[in-house]
Amino acid sequence: MKTKLPSSAFKAVATALLGSCIALGAHANGYPSKPITLVVPFPPGGSNDALARTVGQKLSEYWKQPVLVDNRPGAGGNIGTKHVAKAVPDGYTLLVVANNFVTNPFLYPDGRAGYDPVKEFVPVTQLGRVPFVLVVNPGVAAKSTQELIALAKAQPGKLSYGSAGIGTPHHLTGELFKSLAGIDMVHVPYRGAQPVVTDLIGGQIQVLFGVANSVLPHIKTGALRPLAVTGEQPLFYLPNVPTVASAGFKGFRSEVWIALVAPAGTPADVVAKIEEAAGRALRDPSVKATLEAQGLEPAPSTPTALKALMQEDTARWSKVIKDTGARAE
To answer: Cα–Cα distance between 329 and 326 in angstroms, integer?
Structure first.
């Protein structure tokens, strides 16, 4: 037996639905009408933080609204990420992510990462990228990638390479390199990028795949020796340093990408407004100069392009994680 909805109740439901649609449309058309928060799931001072603050300042100028950076580090980025996953999907709480956004669910299996990057978020735009530089302590008797490989093969297990932590892009890049080169180097994880650079300079470890902006100052002073870069071509600020690919590893590429994502359910037209404004900011000459001075390359993209990048990295790095058995602590 069918129950007929009273006309008064029907009108109430219809009115509520219409009101929601009107409110959503008004919200989208008037965005932004209050402060926006960019959550960075890492401590201040890193690449994510630098990009968030530089781009956020320009967005604030465009929108005439404060754009606040909220650092929420911990658990390899999981704490800040879970916070944004639960945020209201209205475009006022956004997340600045890096590669670990798609690799953490594999490094923290059985749901321990606490979020699903596909189901709980929507891509907005890539912000920037920074390749790694293969650097060594000057005391290491290797002045090229091939010489480093030869040294590692002659002394298996004697060389150690550092990373900013288990499962970080530094670590996974090192494992990929070891696998392709057929060498044995000991992995030494640290809690963050700065301590590993300090110990590399001090000689406690010998090798590092470091993000360009963290090792460039020490390359300039001679405290570190660059052997190669992990991008598809040499960096404009290290024009004489060859790529790893040119050393016989065709197609070898690894870089940190930094992007902006929003909670799932964020209106598409709000996402479009954020993408447009972020792209305009990243193409601004002053922003470009500020970022490039820190070794960061602006790289605005569409949500579709960012989604494809995330899918590509998920496939590539999940295999490396599986093959190496890497697990977060």
So the answer is: 10
Q: What is the CA radius of gyration of the chain?
A: 23
Q: What is the pLDDT of residues 269-299, one digit of tens each?
A: 999 999 999 999 999 999 999 998 888 899 9
Question: CA-to-CA distance for 85 and 89, rounded, in angstroms?
Answer: 9
Question: CA 53 to CA 47: how far, in whole Å?
Answer: 10
Closest CA to 194 of 170, 214, 217, 174: 214
Calculate the dihedral angle through the C-alpha atoms of 269, 273, 279, 282, rounding to the nearest 10 degrees: -150
pLDDT for res 2 = 45
- Separation between Cα atoms, residue 320 and residue 176, nearest integer Å: 7
Angle at 52 between CA 216 and CA 317, to 5 degrees: 70
Mean pLDDT of the chain: 89
Task: Tell me how far apart the alpha carbons of residues 211 and 256 are, in angstroms, rounded to a whole number.
Answer: 8
Write b or e for each residue in 210-244: b if 16 or more Cβ atoms lie within 10 A of its Cβ, otherwise e: bbbbbbbebbeeebbbbbbbbbeebbeebeebbbb
Which one, of 195, 198, 175, lies nearest residue 185 by Cα?
175
